[in-house]
Amino acid sequence: MRGLFTAGVMDAFMKNGLTFDGAIGVSAGAVFGCNYKSRQPGRVLRYNTRFARYPEYGSVRSLIRTGDIFERQFCYVDVPERLEPFDTKAFMEDPSEFWAVATDCRTGLPEYRKLETLQGDEMEFMRASASMPAASRPVQIGDKAYLDGGISDPIPLKAFEERGYDRNVVILTQAEDYVKKPQQLMWLMNVALKDTPAVAEAMKNRHEVYNQEREYILKRQEEGAAYLIFPPYKLPIGRIEHDANKMREVYDIGYETGMKHLEAVREFLEKE
Hints:
48% of the residues lie in helices and 12% in strands. α1 crosses α12 (244-270) and α3 (43-50) runs antiparallel to α12 (244-270). The model has no long low-confidence stretch (mean pLDDT 97). Strands 1, 2, 3, 4 and 5 form a five-stranded mixed β-sheet that branches. The protein has helices at residues 3-15, 28-37, 43-50, 60-66, 72-83, 88-93, 121-129, 157-162, 186-192, 197-204, 206-222, 244-270; strands spanning 22-26, 97-104, 110-114, 139-141, 144-148, 168-171, 226-229. The chain is globular and about 50 Å long. The chain is built from twelve helices and seven strands.
């Protein structure tokens, strides 16, 4: 739910006509970020606050009943198709590219996929990108299974640069001085992930990957190739949240931050 900060930044940009050639999202950054390509400011905040206390939306009840803390049918079918419609037509017609990252359960490595329709297997890949280990079942697509992209590539700036994007705006959900610590209760994670040992290994090393990528994006900012946007302080929200007021608070922090950076981002993108 820290991704509501990202949603606020994105809405500030969208409402002020800021466009990009492409975007890449991981986990909440994917499921929220796709709304930039569909040009739907406000949608992320609406459905999160509207369904915050639904048992299908981030509850232990859903985890016990379905194996997923966010129920697949409700979150990835009912909401985008009927309850808070996602504009698939606008998403497909927008010329920008949208990429998502998920972790291959067999190898523990990231996989990157360009999403063009957000239907069928593409929606499943999006779901996989945001399927937290131990709180979600692996998402099966063809002969592969996937989990949260943040396990293996939490800040995929280098991967996006390799796809030809050489001037990037990076929105983080942790404050600038944040350094990730080793996974707590790793023994319990090993038990939960006993059927996917490569994922368990990736989880053990996740803090090292995150901190290395943090150093990389700071270096790219110094070199003038990246513009970084951090929350001004630790966000007052956790991974799961049922209080709509806290959601609005974090979204508002993001929106205000986006507005503060708006003109500087315009200048950054217009540089030769």
